[in-house]
Amino acid sequence: MLSFLRNSFSGFSKARSSALGLVNQNAIQNFTDDFLTPTSYDVLQARGRKRVLKASLSRQQKLERRLKREAREAARKQYSFMEKIKIKRMRSLLSPSEQHPGRWNAEDEVNLPDTPPTNVYFINQVKTKFYPITEALDMQRKMQQPAIFNNPNGIVNLRIELNMTTKKKTKMIANSDNIIPVPYPIETKEKRSILAFVADSKLQELAIESGAEIALGPDMIKKIIKGQFRIDDYDFCVAHTDMGSTILPLRGILKSRLPTKTNGGFGDNLPEMIEKFKKGVRMNVRGDPVYPHWGLCNTIIGTLKMNDEEILTNTQTIIEALCKLRDPELGPFINRAVIMVGKNSYYVPVDVCEYTPKVDKDK
């Protein structure tokens, strides 16, 4: 009896498994047939006549398109590739004008007191006081003592905040690198190499004796253009009048270093020009890439061991040369000037209004 039941149960289980297997095979076969069988669709495309493209443009429409195209080209050529990269980096950071010591804004100090209420106070809680240059130099000499910053013979830097606007709202003052001859030369560790373009062999010897690294004649112009002679190692270039038309093909290579009467690198007196570029003061004017209507000028006016009168004379010479870059009728060119020594963060705002050009308001 037990053997009969065992055989019948095993037979039932085999039949059940075979039936389930048949069902699973049929389901899998149906799924694969439906999934792998490609389906066809009928696609209908209705196309109309493009009559708008054949319509002629009016003069006004052509003018608007041309102006937009020129504006895009001007925006594309405004900055070089590396300048665009710097602008992208600077947008994520502070602009150069907002970096220490920042840019002064008189409107932010309208409600602040003129004098501090106590002997100890925060600078940003009182209106900015502009000191005479002589008093600012005394303050810097006290701060540069060995017990504090330990830089008694430091170089005096003048940081000038500028307004770069012009008569045209979309045009700003261009960046420039100038050499300003000062009455009292400043001793610095900077080494400047000068290249002279002179046709006469005797004048070439005179240029080298005056301090030029090398003097080239007309035969070297083609070699420079072809790249056979590199001039990247030279900081400044001067040229005698006998090379006036000969150096014109080098405009694209020399760029801002091209000798001209404006920058003082073109003339008859080679020793005087070379002396100017050797001992003159650099005056770099740079626009702010984040705020184009702002600008900065960093220059040197002397050292702490120089007399105050010498530093005052150098300051007057530099500011007068700087103010020639902008029409005085547009308003004040200088927003604020501060004196700093070396690389430390201590600064003193100074009053330089006596050196800026005066404008007759009645006219």
TrEMBL record:
Return the GO cellular component terms, semicolon-separated. Answer: ribonucleoprotein complex; ribosome
Keyword Ribosomal protein belongs to the record: yes
Asked if the record carries the keyword Ribonucleoprotein, the reply is: yes
Sorted alphabetically, which keywords does the UniProt record give? Ribonucleoprotein, Ribosomal protein
UniProt superkingdom: Eukaryota
Q: Which SUPFAM superfamilies match?
A: Ribosomal protein L1 (SSF56808)
Concerning Pfam families, the annotation shows:
Ribosomal_L1
Q: Which InterPro entries match?
A: Ribosomal_uL1-like, Ribosomal_uL1/biogenesis, Ribosomal_uL1_3-a/b-sand
The family assignment reads: Belongs to the universal ribosomal protein uL1 family.
User: What is the name attached to this protein's record?
Assistant: 39S ribosomal protein L1, mitochondrial
Organism listed in the record: Strongyloides papillosus
Q: What is the lineage of its organism?
A: Eukaryota, Metazoa, Ecdysozoa, Nematoda, Chromadorea
